[in-house]
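Table 4 source record.
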Amino acid sequence: MEEIDRRIVTLLARDGRMSFTDLARETGLSVSAVHQRVRRLEKRGVVRGYAAIVDHDAIGLPLTAFVSIKPIDPAAPDDAPERLAHLTAIEACHSVAGDESYILKVRVASPVALEDLLQQIRAAANVSTRTTVVLSTPYEHRAPDVAAEPPGGQDGPA
């Protein structure tokens, strides 16, 4: 990826609503050149979308937890993500190495709602759970600094 494209991606990751005019000013390109580069980055899948960052407390979902899951029957098919996709309280599902198979990030209204969600997760996916409740979040949604050159030079590690 060219250095200028890295700069554009970094700027958009920090502010997805940044105008083409502001991107042009920050990169030293013309507005039309920035527009073309952003569209190309979108088509290549480098920029996959733009999203609003929501205040979960304000919408009634103040409790965040991480739920580690592992199958009760290790020989069972590894289909937990599909079995749990209908549970909208699950914000993210990460496949992980270690004792557990997946770590889920969940957001709910209360401890009672978390308990109910855990029962739904166990029943839907036939898994055991281990839960960590988040007390506070000093930072989240940090933008990557893709403007920096990757380790090992332009093409990455040797």
